[in-house]
Amino acid sequence: MIRTLPSPSCLSCCVPAVHLVLALGIWGGLLFYSAASTTWPRAWIHLALWLITFAFNACVLLRLNREVLAARLRPKRGTQRAERLLMLLVLPLTLAIPIVAGLDAVRYGWSGLPFWTVWFGVGVHAVGDALILWCMVVNPFLEKTVRIQADREHRVITTGPYAIVRHPMYSGVVLMLLAIPLVLGSAWTFVPVTAMSLLLMVRTEPEERMLRRELPGYEDYTHKTRWRMLPGIW
Prior knowledge:
Layout: H1 8-35, H2 41-64, H3 66-73, H4 81-108, H5 116-138, H6 168-184, H7 190-214, H8 218-224
Helix pairs in contact: 1-2, 1-4, 2-5, 4-7, 5-6, 6-7
């Protein structure tokens, strides 16, 4: 019998899956350790929701836009100094979310959100993910880093959600962040979540400056699409 080696595309798809399992394992470990309990239904719902979201998005992108999936799997490169500094702040805030949620919702019960907020949170999560997925379907240049992708003939994307706001991906991420305290039942978790959302808004500033300066057509695009993340507000 002749064994065939896995194709590079199969191997590249396995890498993020392994990373996801590790990330969910660390996140879940922090949730249950801070809660001092593994019998926390809302935490299991939260973890299952993110796992299902990843699997669904991967299936859609494999059919509709493999290019952006491949771009997001590539190692980071060309990261600007301002972005690196922001990421240093994001890491502790990210770790604070499951820790605060477990301490608040289960161990000490500082605040208690009724169980129906789980389903409201699932709805907010779904809307945010739908917006992110829409961005990834229409925009092949959604790498993990902020850079002008001259190697890929980078151009301004003005269709889909980009006709409404200039940074719809960030808008979707903010919605998914806001869903976390609702699903986990912890009002105090809105503190690190809000801080992360504000950091995303701050991140748009150096990104805007670079795009205006280096990406042909972006300046004209800003005049047609006025809002960065919140239609009619900002």
